[in-house]
Design goal:
Chain A: GO terms for molecular function: ribonuclease P RNA binding. The complex is a heterodimer of chains A (about 130) and B (about 375). Chain A has about 130 residues and is of the alpha+beta class. Helices cover about 25% and strands about 35% of the residues of chain A. Chain B has about 375 residues and is α+β, with helices and mostly antiparallel strands. A 7-stranded antiparallel beta sheet of chain B has the order 1-15-14-13-2-9-8, sandwiched between helices. A 5-stranded antiparallel beta sheet of chain B has the order 5-4-6-3-7. Chain B has a 3-stranded antiparallel beta sheet with strand order 10-11-12. In chain B, a hairpin with a 4-residue loop joins β11 and β12. Chain B is globular and about 65 Å long. Chain B starts with 11 loop residues before the first strand and ends in an 8-residue tail after the last strand. Classes of the chains: A alpha+beta (about 130), B alpha+beta (about 375). The interface between A and B is large, with 56 and 73 residues.
Chain lengths: ~130, ~375
Amino acid sequence: MEEPTTFERHVYKNASVYHYMKISLDLENGKRSFSDAQFKQLIISALKELYGEVGAAFPFDLLKFDPSSLKAILRVYNKGLVKLWSALTLLGSYQNEACAFRVIQVSPFLLALSGNSRELQFGESLTS
Amino acid sequence: MSPELEKCPRSLLVCEKSNFMNEKSRHDIHVSKHSFNYKISVLIPECAVLPANISGVISNFSPYYLVRDLPVYELLQEKSYETVLQKGTVYAVSYNTKIDEDNSIALLPSVVTLNLRDKTLAPGTKRYQRVLSGLKDRLPLRYDFLFTEHNTGGDEDNSLYNLLSQYKPIEHKAVLSHHTLKNLPCPTLYPSDLQGTTLSCDPHSFLEWLGAVNLDISCENAADSFLSTYICPEPKSSVSQALLCTITGFISPEDVYLLLQELRYDLKHCCRFPERCFLTMTKLYISHKLFFNCTSCAHRKYFDEPKFTPWLSLTVHGFMDSPVSWGATEHGFLKGGENFYNLVCFKNQDYWLHMATGAHDGCPP
């Protein structure tokens, strides 16, 4: 049995290496089928369109992708966050079909994305 | 390329380690001051079924009420003031109001900007009348509210419901869901190494892994994978099974504390002397599932095979649109609304506490 620990407190400021984004893709004519690789390729092409071949050359991860809702979770190094976010915002079409990325939640903690209280709904119509 | 493009808002994480038995331990204060809790997530490695005592505590969580279109001045009426608010165990937060777009209201049991327990705001005083008429006539705010009150078991437990009855409150219970994860890569944690300098992984990597487990994100990726390169942090081991249990609703800090106590009790009594427990364990079959009954500590084991979890984790997410995080510390949304804490409890009653809030929020306590 280890000895009981002594009190310690640490405050980490800007120590997180990554940011995490929860996004969804809206297409003008409703849903269409995407594979996870196609979805990531779409984001990469949006980055290249805005920042060029060199400016878009930074890594990000597609941690999770749900093909039915076209929702995804991305992980990106902090210094790529603004570029990735702006490229997502400015993407306007996919194969001549109007589309838009919605950014639902962005956090330096992946854990924060698992507890979104805005998802608390009671399945009844709201009074105005 | 402009360097501005590579900047991002600050992030803030406060980590503490201590022992539950330590007189000066502040875990109870941190739990009690985090008033508006939306979701609890418990992860117990080496556990396959939800222990009966834990599900018992969860099913006894106080209900919460959704009240539509409630005028704010109702909270200050003399009747509500005397029967409910003065008791100091009522929590209310406006529902479906986004703090970055709308006005949001939260009723804290102790301290608010409009301090309802201030003597100068007692019914009958001039100040009370002025606030009441202001909210009634000049600024007639109405919101949907969520209410909860910690059940103390007394006769007055229905007072909140009675008070709200004319607004047709809808009662809800916190929703429990749980499932067993198989063959989970799991970071190895040593209670003495909170910062992850030698034995454990660092706090950010641990919270990332915990997020991945909660969001069902795979951490078995190749280093050259096109989609994702995320892997479980080192040092790690594989656990054959782990129980992930989530509770969603409007949960009072008192209920969070009761759950924490029960989890601690299980860790302490079932895992402290595993060798002794083995000697006195008897097998027990319930619904075709195998349990071990420990007769020396008169307590049922977590495990359907003789393995013992060295730690378990309790994560509590606050409402992202709550105007406060801990106590009266201001909270905003900005881009993610982070407002959570995580407790890792070890079997020797040591614990780690991680607290995180948003980029522009006040520092956690």
